[in-house]
Amino acid sequence: MKQSGIADFSGKRVWVIGASSGIGEACAKALLLKGSKVALSSRRVERLNQIAIASGVNQTLVIPLDVTNDSQLQDGYKSIMSAWGGIDLLLFVSGVYTPLRADNFDIKIAEKTIDANLLGPMRAVSLVLPEMLKAHAGHIAIVGSVAGYSGLPKALAYGPSKAAIINFCENLFYDLLPTGVSVHMISPGFVTTEATAQNDFEMPALISAEVAANEILVGIQKGEFDIHFPKRFSRFLKFLRILPYPIYFWIVRRFVKI
Length: 258
Hints:
Helices cover 47% and strands 13% of the residues. By secondary structure, it is an alpha/beta fold.
């Protein structure tokens, strides 16, 4: 089953949610260099304005919002539709991460994590889908994580939120393939961001946000559904998920030194 990609980003209307730092910022900057019109969204309006000004081009919209706030998302989408009349690509990168294990489990942190990492992209997708379906065209790209492949230490809330994103994207792909709307499920490994700066353990195959952005945009260009990187790490985790649990847990305890 093959879906379409975006051969040329020039002139494409892209909504990047989570554009103020990390992978989202790197994607936004790369898209602007490729000639895209980019709507920049996150909670940090000052940072969004800096990115827009630094781009030196008149092809950005600054749409500050919180992905847990329905009305802010709706107003942001209306602003983009009013300015551009449509969206070619929704790139949802926003997410939160708080290290959690069973001995410090906090249900309030878990609720906030699920609200931002799962319900946030669901809210955004519900906004853009009707017009994309009418047009029989468009792209929905959601950044999850390899932490969603299987249970890993310190991810008691983050991991389940990203596992649910994998399931959500799989369902979207199945439903939307006949319609002409493409879905891209993005599963990064360790990337140098503000979130991973919280980690107090060695992060294997750590890559920069710029490298991650390139992997994402190349994958979207090719029309890939499953965009995962860096391959030397993500393929290893894909292999782990098919192992019997006794072997899986032994390997995790043996090699994850945290």
